[in-house]
Amino acid sequence: QVKLAESGGGLVQPGESLTLSCVASENLFPITLYTLGWHRQAPGKQRELVATLTNTGHETYADSVKGRFTISRENAKQAVYLQMNNLQLDDTAVYYCYAGRLHSHYYGQGTQVNVSS
Fold it and tell me: Which of 102, 87, 109, 83 is nearest to 24 (CA)?
């Protein structure tokens, strides 16, 4: 069973930064063929895409995070990261790691990010 394990969430003030990490289990193989990414779900809202990074290096971001968030991946470590700068109150959500290829889609259990003054 493929597992994605997120870490790095927490409580920060507006304007601060956080880096989320996600490590995939070894049976997500070969990870080089997968699109990796992050989704989030805020209280009372639907889950939304935050950022994705294809196996060929193409990045996609939600308009609300462009210029503030950066996605990266480290295939040798089965990992994907989300650098989040200038966090805002609206960024408060549970952030889910994602891995997908063709008809296979996987999500982690999520990590909570709270932005509060």
Answer: 109
3-state secondary structure of 90: helix
pLDDT at 29 over 90: no
Neighbour-count burial of 92, counting CB atoms closer than 10 A to its CB (0-12 exposed, 13-18 middle, 19+ buried): middle
pLDDT tens-digit map of 60-77: 999 999 999 999 999 999
Number of H-type helices and E-type strands within the chain: 0, 11
**What is the Cα Rg of the chain in Å?**
13
Instruction: Check residue 26 and give its pLDDT.
Output: 84
Closest CA to 64 of 43, 81, 39: 39
- Which of these, 25, 5, 41, lies nearest to 78 by C-alpha position? 25
Q: What percent of the chain has pLDDT over 90?
A: 91
